[in-house]
Write a structure and sequence with these properties.
By secondary structure, this protein is an alpha/beta fold. It has 15 helices and 16 strands. The chain has 2 domains: 191 residues, Aspartate Aminotransferase, domain 2 (3-Layer(aba) Sandwich); 174 residues, Aspartate Aminotransferase, domain 1 (Alpha-Beta Complex). A 7-stranded mixed beta sheet has the order 1-12-11-8-7-2-4, sandwiched between helices. Helix 6 links the parallel strand 7 and strand 8.
Length: 415
């Protein structure tokens, strides 16, 4: 049977959404207040702020909690380097605690060894978060008198016990960047539990510079290119083979675009985007996407459950278990962890079948900072993780093809 392959790339765009965005830019339509009000109604709280990016949202949270006596911010090194830079830019001192591969969260036992009176806050990075251990970690941080900050950048709309992810903690931040489930090209969001801290952060961001339209259009143009190249017909006729060729030949320009975290460059001064406010002309696009974001999220979880059912018995891989009652990840993509250093073999095998996947998620960001400690789990995930697509264009037929080819690889390996 001949399959029409589907790109792992997908951004939340359509002709209607493109028109809404361009109309807003051309006629300078600013629906920021309406967009913010809608978010407040969805999250059932007034304590929400909009920022230029997810990382700037974290920056202003950290500026609020870091003091001379409490400068340390605990975080797993398995994340984007830009998240760690936020800690430094805000005057904090990053303290790395390795990730627990089984739970997808910061390791609780190692956290207990590192948290102390100098700890201002702990960042919980949500990847494929385990619900039970998430609660244990959150409660322990509160017990120790530190702030809980949830990195929900890739999990906007995820819920736990009918509460949106982040609302149980002191702070949470979210991203509306190009590849997120809410795609505004730029943009971020802060949730603050404490009313006084909310007022303080709001005051700090209210006089920021207007987001430059030229920068927004530049990101929009990149989005359009990705959107066109990954339309099903164009992808099968052209893009698939082009992407595979660029990847196999290690074309750095291409790799920097699709794996920006892997090729991150530290800036010696705070990036200019930290001084910009939310991009007002993206708000209309945001309102359109909020109409069905929960339906899209449920679709991603449903697809992820199918991957789990298909692959959990394959000996050569580890797949995150999905809790059917309480799900605190929307799985922007579904990660599988390859055992026995077989990732490169499996990846090349899938490429030979025309199946092009993202071959890493985050990196061990501690390598960008001076530290003598080794973080084996972060290293392991950086080198042994593949991402399976969960976007709305993935058909059951194509999902089964991906799973069947993974099983075929291990069947042939064991012969």
């Amino acid at each position: 049977m001949i399959y029409s392959h589907i790109s792992r790339f997908y951004i939340n765009l359509s002709l209607k959404k493109i028109f809404i965005f361009l109309f807003s830019v051309l006629f300078k339509i600013n629906k920021k207040k309406i967009f913010l009000n809608k978010l407040q109604k969805i999250f059932k709280t007034k304590n929400i702020l909009l920022t230029s990016q997810g990382r700037t949202a974290l920056y202003y949270i950290l500026k609020n909690i870091i003091s001379d006596k409490k400068r340390e911010i605990i975080i797993s090194p398995y994340t984007l380097p830009e998240v760690i830079y936020c800690i430094v830019y805000s005057g904090g001192l990053p303290v790395f605690v390795d990730i627990n591969i089984k739970t997808g969260l910061i390791d609780l036992d190692k956290l207990k060894q590192n948290i102390n009176s100098k700890t201002a806050g702990v960042i919980i990075t949500h990847l494929y978060s385990d619900c039970e251990n998430y609660e244990k970690i959150r409660k322990y941080i509160i017990k120790k008198g530190s702030f809980v900050i949830e990195d929900s950048a890739i999990n906007f709309g995820a819920k736990q016990n009918n509460k949106f992810l982040g609302k149980r903690s002191d702070f949470a931040f979210y991203s509306f960047n190009l590849v997120k489930n809410i795609n505004l090209f730029y943009g971020g969001m802060i949730y603050v539990k404490n009313n006084q801290q909310f007022k303080e952060i709001k005051k700090n961001i209210q006089n920021l510079k207007k987001f430059p339209t030229g920068e927004l259009i530049k990101q929009f143009s990149l989005g359009i290119i990705i959107y066109i190249l990954n339309k099903k017909l164009i992808y099968n006729l052209l893009s698939k083979n082009l992407f595979i060729w660029l990847e196999k030949n290690n074309i750095i320009f291409f790799l920097k675009k699709i794996y920006p975290g892997k090729y991150s460059i530290k800036q010696n001064k705070i990036p200019k985007n930290y001084n910009y406010s939310f991009p007002d002309y993206s708000a209309g696009l945001g309102l359109e996407q909020l109409k069905n974001f929960q339906t899209i999220n449920q679709s991603k979880i449903k697809i992820s459950k199918k991957y789990y059912k298909n692959l959990f018995q394959v000996d050569g891989i580890i797949v995150p278990k999905i809790n059917y009652k309480t799900q605190i990840s929307i799985f922007l993509e579904y990660p599988i962890i390859i055992k026995n250093n077989n990732k490169k073999k499996l990846y090349n095998f899938l490429l030979s079948k025309g199946i092009y996947l993202r071959n890493h998620w985050y990196i061990n960001a501690s390598k960008y900072f001076k530290t003598r400690r080794k973080y084996q789990n972060a290293d392991y995930l950086e080198n042994n993780l593949l991402c399976l697509p969960t976007h709305e264009k993935i058909s059951l037929e194509y999902l089964n093809l991906i799973c069947d080819e993974i099983k075929n690889f291990y069947l042939n390996e064991n012969i």
